[in-house]
Amino acid sequence: MRFLAALWAWWKPKAHAFGAFQTRLILTVFYYIVFLPVAIAAGRPWRRPRPTDEGTSWTPRTTRDRSIDDLRRQHS
User: Fold this and answer.
1) Which of 27, 30, 35, 76 has the fewest CB atoms within 10 Å distance of its CB?
2) Could you tell me if 39 and 45 are in contact, meaning their C-beta atoms sit under 8 angstroms apart?
């Protein structure tokens, strides 16, 4: 039983290092095979959007003076 405990203690740091390497490898492959082509096909998200002639999308808003009573009633 001591042999298995010693073997396990010897194996754990090596398995941890192998797991860290394997994780980086899998994520790198995933990035280049899946994520990068999808990002390129989506229209180059790193480019600035082209200006449009539609103007702004802001909606004009008018405000009015509020009294302290209006502020007290806002949650009731």
Assistant:
1) 76
2) yes
Collapsed DSSP state (helix, strand, coil) of residue 15: helix
54 backbone dihedrals φ, ψ, rounded to 5°: -75, -15
Q: Are 21 and 27 in contact (CB under 8 A)?
A: no
Q: What is the model's pTM? A: 0.46
Q: In this predicted model, what pLDDT tens digit does every residue of 27-66 receive, in sequence order?
A: 999 999 988 888 788 776 566 666 666 777 778 877 777 7
DSSP codes joined into one string, 58-75: PPP-------HHHHHTTT
CA nearest to 42, candidates 34, 52, 54: 34
